[in-house]
Design brief:
about 325 residues, alpha+beta, three-stranded mixed beta sheet
């Protein structure tokens, strides 16, 4: 039974900490190690440091019910495929003592899937450094295009894997994976009317846009700044936990997660497009639809903030929803943000 005097977030963290410590013995080479929580969102991720050798690793403890074991296995297969067939720097899974990548921890009648990954050096891009961010988005455009090229070139094998679907229905429609934006914070009657109009416009435009093979496939689905690591001139991609089947342009929209309303976003878009087009073509029609994907992601994040309890959602609060009004109105008026 929950203790009413304990913060619900801290209670969840205590549980994940216990599970992480339970999973560590599955990796015999970590017999002397310490763990430190790095992030708690859809899952909990920990920095694991080998006390003897000083080696670092990342341990991910998945939230029960979010993915099936087969879905996690599919994610890891894609990671190994990307590593084999591209030059993109990613974190790779590590086998446990039982020769399995996924360690299953049973806790209070629930199963937690735990995976150890290689550690990558670097820091997330700084959203406050506009000029640096614009330069980084050029490189991110190149990397994103490489990911999409890999997805298209390996479609026959990748289409068989079991992963989430990120389309209108699962983002804003009848089966939203992250909850309904209507249940988000600060949804007033006027705001619900505004966002409903935006949502309908998104639906209509996506129906016309279609799901052709060069527009829709296996994507990372969460390329936000927190999932990028910058080391000198290099950008590395982490956290494929939400990878699934969706529009390639949705990948770009996720790169602008939580900063969609910032005044420098048009410059980020222009820089990303230049980088992307160095690797693969993107038509003018596709470019014109970028605001549609940005608004779809923004409404999805309103749902996420309203349905999750972690440090990020507490920090964003009502203001994140309120800051959406201006870009929502511009999108309705002229299809831009």
């Amino acid at each position: 039974m929950s203790n009413p005097s304990v913060d619900p977030l801290q209670e969840s963290l205590n549980k994940f900490n216990e599970i992480a410590n339970t999973a560590l013995p599955s990796y015999p080479f970590l017999s002397q190690s310490t763990i430190q929580l790095l992030n708690y969102s859809e899952n909990a991720t920990y920095l694991v440091t080998d006390s003897g050798r000083g080696e670092k690793y990342i341990l991910r403890v998945g939230r029960p019910g979010y993915h099936t074991k087969m879905e996690v296995e599919s994610e890891l297969e894609w990671l190994k495929s990307i590593h084999k067939h591209s030059s993109i720097h990613i974190s790779l899974p590590i086998l446990g003592g039982n020769s399995e990548y996924i360690q299953v921890v049973q806790h209070q009648n629930e199963q937690y899937y735990c995976t150890l990954f290689t550690f990558l050096e670097g820091d997330a891009p700084n959203e406050e450094n506009e000029s640096e961010l614009i330069s980084q988005f050029f490189k991110l455009g190149e990397i994103t295009a490489q990911l999409h090229e890999h997805s298209i070139n390996n479609w026959e094998s990748l289409r068989k894997i079991r992963r989430l679907t990120w389309d209108y229905d699962t983002i804003l429609g009848t089966a939203p994976k992250w909850g309904r934006w209507q249940d988000g914070l600060a949804i007033t009657e006027e705001r619900e009317e505004l966002f409903t109009k935006v949502s309908k416009k998104i639906r209509d435009r996506l129906n016309r846009f279609g799901k052709a093979a060069n527009r829709y496939g296996l994507i990372h689905s969460d390329l936000r700044l927190a999932n990028l690591l910058v080391e000198r001139e290099q950008i590395k991609v982490i956290d494929f936990d939400d990878c699934g089947f969706g529009w390639y342009l949705y990948d770009f929209a996720t790169s602008l997660s939580f900063i969609e309303h910032k005044p420098y976003v048009p410059a980020l878009i222009a820089s990303w497009l230049k980088g992307y087009r160095r690797v693969r073509p993107l038509s003018e029609e596709e470019e014109q639809e970028i605001p549609t994907f940005i608004l779809m992601r923004r409404l999805q994040l309103i749902a996420w903030v309203g349905s999750r309890d972690n440090e990020t959602t507490r920090e964003l609060g009502n203001g994140f929803t309120e800051d959406t009004d201006k870009i929502a109105k511009r999108y309705l008026q002229n299809g831009k943000i």
